[in-house]
Amino acid sequence: MRKFFVRTITLIVFTFIFLNSKVLAAGLGISASTKTVTQGGSVTITINASDLIGRFSVTSSNGNVLSGGTSSEWIENGSKSYRFTAKSLGTATITVNALDVSSTSGQKFTGSKSITINVVKPREKSTNNYLSSLSVEGFTLSPEFSKDQLEYSVEVPAETEKIQIHAGKADSYASLDGIGEKEVSEGDNRFEIKVTSETGNERVYVINVNVKDNNPISVKMNGNDYTVVKKASSLQKPELFEDTKVEIDGFEVPGFYNETSKITLIGLRNQEGKIVLAIYNEKEKSYTKYQPVTSSNITIVSLPNEEGFKKYSKVTVKLGEEEYEGYQISSKSNFIYLYGLRVDSGKKAWYVYDKEEKTLQLYQEEEAKKIEQEYKEKLNEHKIVIACLSGLSLVLAIVILILVYTRKSGMKRKNDNLEKTMDLQKTMNLQKTMELKKPIELQKTVEIPKIDPSENTVIVDDDFLDILGSKKEEIPAESEEKKEEVIPVVEEVKPVEKKKAKPKKKTSKKKTEEISTNSTDENQKENTKVKDNKID
Q1: 304 membership: H or E segment, kind and range
Q2: Predicted structure pTM score
């Protein structure tokens, strides 16, 4: 009985503990990706509803500082994230409230959780691009490191093949490139360490690593100083070549050899530490830069040719990163003629490189003639077009000159006619003015001078001369030799002073007026005839 009672009590206690553990396991939590966010940025708020089911609200205490959230969201035994945007400087509290929530066991749950977020002014991007430290592991830099000193040197033993470069940034927002393990070979080895600030400004530090070479092999190529590379690990074997050994100045150095073309390559290092491959002529002890041109299945080595290519112009053309010596028919042509040795056949010949298609092929005389003929035809077409345009331009210029001359001539004639009209008008006005000034008493009938054919003279009446203001004289008639009509030019007709007339027979008033009128009409006709002669 006692044992039964103990078991019953124990079972009740364990049941109570188990139920309480389930209740205690249910809970509400809130977290943020950051508690400090810059203005214009955002922060992520995560709600964790463990063993809870129901609706929750996620709100900001100050929507002007942090905006986002939800007024009601269903969450079932899990978590959910919300993005809040930092709109202005200040502080805001994000709160999650249990609106209608119960535990997974069915018990009612109430409560809330909060977290405070600060919105600060955006940080200005850093311009710092300095190093805080620089070193080569196991060796000493010269001079001693200083952030303002950009170039250093270090000397390492001849057997050194690799070094380790370490560096530290002065600003955590900067980026660093050029550190770590580096391979080295005899002579000078140049390494650049680049520091780029947050704003993008770059600063370059240089370490010159000199691997001791107790017996350097110095040579010249194209007038520049080089040293022969003695370590095979520093060289990269090109296609169609095999590894070999070459003896130079009593030293065995690594190289490459092609059996077909009989070309031997060795590595040369320039004063900046850059390694290039050169064709080695053992007989002449000379070096020529190895410049392969590859296209499809053809690889040639560009070689100088003193004879040149026909009458084409010698040019230097850049293909890829290398410059080559070739020949071109004109600067506008896409074809470059290169003299070289084909590596796989060992034959030297001229080759044509198409810059547009980037293809290389063996030069063929017939094909070249065809290209030249096409070029000449195009050139002739251009010449014809230019000649036609020149002819049209000349014709147009002549037409323009004719039009200008015609217009000027027309204007001149128009001006002359206008001047004549104005002179005639002035003369007529003057005549009218003079007639108005004549005394009425002077108007009388005057006989028109008559020509006596027998005497070949003109008889002028005294009264007519009185009006003209001149004496009586004989005027020769028009001769057969001079047919031009001679008409006296009267510049001004002066009124004749009144003379005492001889007694005459009385005439009626009507007849007197008729005579006066006839006299005036005759004077007007005579003056008009004089003016017409002046104009002619």
Answers
A1: none
A2: 0.42
